[in-house]
Amino acid sequence: MIEIFTTGGTIDKVYFDANSEFEIGDSLVEELLAESNIREGFSVTGLMRKDSLEMTDDDREAVRAAVSRCSAGRVLVTHGTDTMPETARALLSVKDKTIVLTGAMQPARMRRTDAVFNIGFAWAAVGLLPHGVYIAMNGEVFEAGSVRKNLKAQRFERT
Questions:
Q1: CA geometry: angle at 30 spanning 85 and 151, to 5°?
Q2: 6 flagged as catalytic
Q3: 8 pLDDT exceeds 90?
Q4: Which of 31, 88, 104, 141 has a Cα at 20 to 30 A from 156?
């Protein structure tokens, strides 16, 4: 069983029109998994609906505590990409679990999104990787503590 925690971020953003502000909507993670024909073997818990730029150290501690408390040995966390590396570092204190964070550069509700691929890729990664904390984005896996988001290139890279 894989425990999935959702925290918001671009993957769950909803835009009402081109001129509007966004809000974080209900998570689409179950729908995204279903598109990859993954319909069982997981449980989804919504922790928060925040843009990652609005996440605080208290929010990261709430994620760490939830992951630490859960009985699953394999955990997937959906998260906004801007501060995903910081949350991954906060999770390094959780031992004896495989923890994978993922998200999207474009909201799942948009036609051209990387969300479906990233969720499927993260699903495979969390099932295959040894214990540790990782970020799985756009076909690459990065170890927590050695990754950053390159804002200009809109991708993650090793540090």
A1: 25
A2: no
A3: yes
A4: 31
| Report field, pTM of the whole predicted structure over 0.85 | yes
Edge-first strand order for the sheet with 2-8 is 42-50, 2-8, 74-78, 98-102, 132-137, 140-143
Question: Which position among 6, 7, 10, 102 bears the catalytic label?
Answer: 10
Structure tokens at 65: 């505590």
The rounded radius of gyration (Å) of the Cα atoms in the chain is: 14
The two tokens of residue 8 are 């918001």
Q: By three-state DSSP, how is residue 67 classified?
A: helix
- Is the pLDDT at 130 greater than 80? The verdict is yes
The SS3 of residue 134 is: strand
The pLDDT of 117-125, averaged and rounded, is 96
